[in-house]
């Protein structure tokens, strides 16, 4: 915690909770007199028809001929090629409103494409803060999963052309409007509901326990933790529960605000290593990272978890047990069994944990590991993966 040190909170976009995506899009278009739009969407939001509803609302509310273009992101985490392709579509659609619809990958692609399109360079020109972001374009974010919090963060992930999972950062990446429409999430597969929901839990716990945590971070993180524990098992067991779905969208957004101010920790450095080395989806990867590291974190820095434990009604020493209960309740093992075997050595994971792009997360952890501890955490990561993969359905 920063204590008496000065700190700054980030800007929060306008947020509509519980409204429909189509109505909210139509309202903003009417307010801003927009005449063109680019939808940057993921395949699941197209397949379930949700994007068609957004497009129909746009056609009914845009002025003039009403150009509506569409870019469907690949079914992977964002990479430089897809971000640059989406940005080129935005450039070729003058004055377009950019609307991201989908999970974290679609939103990160949309946010980066909107910003990159304001200049000539591709997204890699701005990765890891190498150059300032060029500008901002009118954006709407409509998450159809509940976990990443990408709709309110100033950080985006992108895989560069040599395969590193890197990031861009800046106020320019914040949307102008966020719409939390719980109906957009009800067709999420159960394994995606589980993994993305655990992602929100990891975000909140790492933000509140990290070295950059503040009172503002703590406020949003603690409520996000409570919402996940109370509602994620229901969202998995009862996918049509709009109450649980909305609560999880709120949790994801609050956890996103928490990491935007407080950052993440060693679970994310492990998770990003798994993403870079084995293309493990982000929610699964960071949940494994937290399961591998939480015992060690709590043992060495119990005071960092005091507020989280109090909010969740458990002693600090029982937080690893609570995480295990949550992982079991939502069936993370089912998500892991859908993925290939993890053919990695501990040395590979340990090295990637402190790569340039992952070092800020590693150093923000409540307890910074030495080389021996880092290798032990890498070994533990593989053991946790294998144990969950072998668990009975």
Overall tally of domains: 2
| Main sheet attributes: strand count, strand direction, barrel closure | 6 strands, parallel
What is the residue-mean pLDDT, rounded to a whole number?
95
Sketch the topology as an H/E string, one letter per element. Answer: EHEHHEHEHEEEEHHHHHHHHHHH
**Helix-strand makeup class:** alpha/beta
Structural features, described:
The chain has a 6-stranded parallel sheet with strand order 1-8-5-4-2-3, with helices on both faces. It has a two-stranded antiparallel ribbon with strand order 6-7. Helix content is 53%, strand content 10%. α10 runs antiparallel to α12 and α14 packs across α16 (371-390). A hairpin with a 5-residue loop joins β6 and β7 (165-169). The chain is of the alpha/beta class. The longest helix has 23 residues, at 215-237. The N and C termini lie far apart (40 Å). It folds into 2 domains: 14-185, Rossmann fold; 190-390, Dehydroquinate synthase-like - alpha domain (Dehydroquinate synthase-like, alpha domain), CATH 1.20.1090.10.
Compact overview of the structure:
The chain has 393 residues and is an alpha/beta fold.
